[in-house]
Amino acid sequence: MRKILFILITALIAFGCSSDKSSVVEETAEVSSTTETPMTATEEEVAEEEVVEEEAVEEEATEEEAVEEEVVEEEAVEEEATEEEETTSACDSWDADPKITVGWPGHSGDFPGPSIQETARIGAHEGYDRWVLEFRPGSSPPGGWQIWWTGNTIQSDGDFDPTATMEGTEFLTIRMLSSSGWALPEEEWYDGPRDLYGSDAGTSNLMQASLKGDFEGYSTWGIGVDHEAPFNVFTLAEPSRLVIDICH
Questions:
Q1: By the 8 A CB rule, do 197 and 213 touch?
Q2: Residue 61 sits in the same domain as residue 129
Q3: Most exposed of 154, 156, 177, 187 (fewest Cβ within 10 Å)?
Q4: What is the arithmetic mean of pLDDT over 48-54?
Q5: Rounded CA gap, 211 and 133, in Å?
Q6: What's the predicted TM-score (pTM) here?
């Protein structure tokens, strides 16, 4: 009987020890699982900080690139401005010499085509003033001309002083194979402005342009200026025009 009790007591003790060991193991596992969670949260925070740092670096790089682009653009604008300043003015290539077509004066009855004057105008431009004589549709520019500085007078037909009623201290005479009046039927006479004033157009050197008449197929305009200067003569088409640019 004593042996049986001894055996039972020994078995109970053994069972109690094994239970304690399993409890310790379970508690250890629970502690381990509990301590792993905050480590994961910390890692996530570190990862988030790294992402934020990377984004900040990328933003700084983008800002630096934008600043560099702005600097490049400003330098390009400065270079363009410098190039524009260094560009030679058109007036530098012009001169004040007479402009005369080949074969001038020619016969007053020689007309390569109708050159019927329609209207005239003046305008202000950067560095020069412009006079434009426009011809009627179907007309061509005059077949010949002589355009030159004539001092304080205008070379014209007649015994009157054409500068008496004109503004200007120096004058450019324009003689061309083109009619504005008497050589044409009355319905084709020039009906445009005969006097154009620089004060109305805001010109700098050109003070007045006036039609001074026509005689035997020759037409005469005069331009009064503040001072003689280089000038350029050319024609344009559609509509036909005779253009004179006078430097300031």
A1: no
A2: no
A3: 187
A4: 62
A5: 10
A6: 0.63
Same domain, 103 and 118: yes
106 lies in the same domain as 36:
no
- Determine the 3-state secondary structure of 166 from DSSP: coil
Please check whether residues 98 and 221 belong to one and the same domain.
yes
Specify whether the CB–CB gap between 85 and 103 falls below 8 A. no
Q: 120 and 24 in one domain?
A: no
Query: Is the confidence at residue 172, as pLDDT, over 80?
Result: yes
Helices and strands, number each (H, E), in the chain = 2, 10
How many C-beta neighbours within 10 Å does residue 147 have?
19
pLDDT band at 1 (very low <50, low <70, confident <90, very high): low
Does one domain contain both 153 and 220?
yes
In angstroms, rounded to a whole number, what is the distance separating the alpha carbons of residues 55 and 81?
Answer: 39
Please give the structure tokens belonging to residue 228.
């003689």
Give yes or no: residues 171 and 81 share one domain: no
Distances (CA, A) of 158 to 29, 155, 175, 213: 128, 9, 14, 10
Domain with 12, as residue range(s), is 1-87
- pLDDT surpasses 50 at 142: yes
pLDDT of 186 reads 79
